[in-house]
Amino acid sequence: MNSEPTQLIMNLPISTDAVENISRLKDIFRQCADIAYERIAAGPEMACSAWIVYCESLADQQSASDILSVLQKMEMRRRGNGMVISSQTIREWFEFQGVIDRSYFVHDSIGSVVRMVLRGHVVFFMEHWHHAISFDGLKLETRGVEEPSAERAAIGPREGTVENLSMNIGMLRLRLQTPDFKIVKIPQAGRRTGKEIVYGYLDGVVSDRVLQQFEQRIHQVRNFDVIDTTMLERVIQDAARTPFPQCRYTERTDAAALALLEGKIIVMSQGSGVVLICPSRFVEFLQSIEDYYHRPSFTFFIRLLRLAAFLIALFLPSIYVALTTFHTELIPTVLLLAITNTREGIPFPAVVEVLIMEFFFELLREAGIRLPQAVGSAVSIVGALIIGQAAIDSGIASPIMIVVVALTGIASFSIPQYNFAISLRLLKVPFILLAASLGGFGIMIGIILLLMHLCSLRSLGEPYFDPIGPFHPRRFAGLFKASDKRDPGQDAA
Amino acid sequence: MKARVCLMLWIGAALILTGCWSQMELTERAFVLALAIDKGDKEKLEVTAQIYKPMSQFGPPSGQSQELSFINVTLQGMSVSNIIRNTKTVSGRHSQFSHIQILLVSDEVARERLGDILDFFFRDPEIRLGTPVVITRGKARNYLVGRSMIESTLGSQLFKQINFSAYLAGRSVNTNLRDLAFGLKSESEGAMLPVITNDRQYRQDVVQGIALARRDRLIGYIRPVKAPYLLLLAGKYKYGVLEIPCEGEESLTETVEVLHSAARMTPAIKGRSASARIEVEIDASIGELACTTIRDMADETKFADRIGQYFKEQMESVLDTLRKRKADVLGIGHKLYLRHPAQWKNMKPDWPELYARMPIDLDVRVYIRNSKMMNSTPYSRIGDN
After folding, report:
1. pLDDT tens digits for B171-194?
2. Residue A322 and residue A427 in one domain
3. A341:B57 CB<8 A
4. Minimal Cα–Cα distance from B86 to chain A, Å?
5. Nearest beta carbon to residue A328 from set B54, B57, B96
6. Which pairing describes strands A35-42 and B102-106: parallel, antiparallel, or unpaired?
7. Which residues make up the CATH 3.30.300.210 domain(s) of chain B?
8. Cβ distance of A333 and B58 shorter than 8 Å
9. Which residue among A324, A328, A345 places its CB closest to the CB of B57?
10. A395 shares contact with chain B (CB less than 8 Å)
11. Among A83, A116, B66, B153, which has the minimal tally of Cβ within 10 Å of its Cβ?
């Protein structure tokens, strides 16, 4: 409503009249009950007045009182007429007295003061002085470091990121103790959210072209209001109209460090534990950090298993439909007879049956995620009973259908990246429809279109389907093993 | 723009004009598991299709096991394809032939017309060429009536019986549609088929013996006891037990188990006549000994020579039967054609007669590979031997 006057005031320089400054601030922060203004009288005969402004909900009370103690000391030291306190004097005080061990900022516009207050800084105004000083008094409630619930691993560190950005950076810094690990800050993303965003990369490992592309895009983030790191994918991604994600996410510091070693760029933001990893290729969504902690033979097995899971999650329902309605000759006789037994008496065509059961399953899955844990288990009981037993007994679905749907669901759960599993859930439906209308031929058409799409996708300019799309034999063979991370410089020596 | 429209049309046409258009739900299909072909009234054929009857889970829970899991549809007509098309009018479902387990042809029909009734099966895309064909003694339909012994349907029961009879017992041959076509259409124009008979005494169906076919009809049989020797000659004997009667004592027999066998046939042309040499090698282990004592290697060689001689006699009698029937099921003619195509042209019209009187040189070698226990009487008292 009053955005224009507010904007005008924001651009004003700090006046030498402290009372005017305060009234301007009060104007901007009208109806903001958590902004505290404290007047301090200082100097001989309390003639010199000063103001402290801070946000009670963000800044530590202790920080505000630190200022007071500084001033008191200043007063004690100052003999005689201390009516004029120059900025120089104060700066000296702050610098050399070592009262406050935090960095401080000098401001000369109202706007920057407002921003600092909203970031938890304590701002100090002095009469007859056209500057203001602020220092960081932010106190954040942060939870302890825990294992991320979405990325559990049987072995490996249990360290997950928290909502505090500097803590996260610290945990990463400990894992990569090299000056090559660069952290770049974008202090203010979005006019209203004003989020602090950082991106990091390993100098010398990351490709310059990718980094350049990334930096071009990430700087657009100033115009976006960013609530969470995941929203940044929209700024970074190459193609918006694709079900496939082009960024990976992790809450594990070891996974983030490994991504850096692989030449990826990571993005983090204040207030979110999510680490965004880009550019990401198709095959990386089927890999997990744990692969690097196991013996190579097991890694080989587990990656093959995930490949199978990917194929099952995408194709199993459509293959079932194609086989039972078009290509019954492909089913072994004994199995076919068993299937005909279970299908006998089901009123729907196979495709309708599949769609109904997939719909039930998606509903259950969505309900299970949203509900609190106590109720969630009730949903799974009801779901298991309704979908499993009752649907069969009432003749809506055949038992083999339940097996197909359940296997598809379990396969999609076993894909390590959640956002990738979602894209498979979406893609499964067009495949079912293709199978129902054209049989195995339809599935082939779908696969061809899918491969064409995957080969045309790019992530930060890099081919998305990399070792398969532009075929690269050596890296393709390497897909099934977790390669050692060797420093190329050390190798040559 | 124009190119893009063209491309879209082209892709659309590719989608619409090609593809699988056989969409049909499982509940609309009837899966034929076995077919029996008999002679019907007058010149007609009688075809019986055994169709799987799905057991609905919503049916009455009790007495389900008493119900048969298949139905038989029998129709008569002049042509196989027309009769099969009409099975729908009886069963109410579309017959699907891709899961046929066995094709039964009664000897009565096979003696008159084996070639032309099979023509449909060679052409139809649904029917697999791997489907076994078997000749039935008596009416073929009778073998599809009643209950199966172990398997859920009679079709798969018979299928397994043929398989094991040919593979493990060496009592019969496993011939599918493809083998039959290759045999009958080869230059030799001969094929072997398994035979199924009903054992009246114990009321059970037995697959044993081999039927001989030439050109388009059945011409004779090889008895079950002689069947292994025909298989050995043809190199199709896998595993089985062979009996050798004791010299002097007719009531006693000894047995060997065949572990591996190989046959090599080399035909030759001499002027206007042909000859052939067949070498058969048998690796065997001793099964039962009744009248032979093997103490050392010399005894073993003697035993091997004796049974080799016996096998050779048996094979020669089989070869005599084949030549008498003019059934070149070993494919000697075809091999001659492959080796001497030019001479074969002149020879072919007279081949049956040439074959009937051609000399066949037979060489049988038996190797005892595993003697198990060499005592003539295991668990014997000291001094008994």
Report:
1. 889 899 999 999 988 988 899 999
2. yes
3. yes
4. 21
5. B96
6. unpaired
7. 225-385
8. no
9. A345
10. yes
11. B66
State the pTM of this model.
0.82
State the burial class of residue B73 (Cβ atoms within 10 Å of its Cβ: 0-12, 13-18, 19+).
Answer: buried
Nearest CB partner across the interface for B26, out of A333, A343, A445: A343
Task: Identify whether residues A117 and A80 lie together within a single domain.
Answer: yes
Nearest neighbour of B19 by CB, restricted to A343, A346, A439: A439
Domain count, chain A: 3
Does the beta-carbon distance from B56 to A392 stay under 8 Å?
no
Residue among A323, A339, A288 nearest A309 (CA): A288
ipTM of the complex: 0.80
Instruction: State whether A313 and A459 are in the same domain.
Output: yes
Q: What is the pLDDT of residues B254-276, one digit of tens each?
A: 889 999 999 999 998 887 888 99
User: Measured between alpha carbons, how far is B137 from B210 in angstroms, rounded to an integer?
Assistant: 11
b/e code A410-444 from CB counts within 10 Å (16+ = b): ebbebbbbebbbebbbebbbebbebbbbbbbbbbe
Q: What is the pLDDT of residues A33-90, one digit of tens each?
A: 888 888 877 655 666 677 888 888 888 777 777 777 766 666 655 544 544 555 566 6
The residue whose two tokens read 């049916």 is B59
Print the domain residue range for A56. Answer: 3-136
What would the 3-class secondary structure string for A480-493 be? Answer: HCCCCCCCHHHHHC
In a domain, A90, yes or no: yes
- Tell me how far apart the alpha carbons of residues A262 and A202 are, in angstroms, rounded to a whole number: 9
Task: Give the architecture-level CATH label for domain B225-385.
Answer: 2-Layer Sandwich (3.30)
**Dihedral of CA A449/A452/A456/A459: which sign?**
positive
A430 touches chain B (CB under 8 A): no
- What DSSP string runs through B150-168? SSSSHHHHHHHHHHHIIII
User: Same structural domain for residues A255 and A341?
Assistant: no
A392 close to B (CB below 8 A): yes
Q: Tell whether A336 lies on the interface with B, counting CB pairs under 8 A.
A: yes
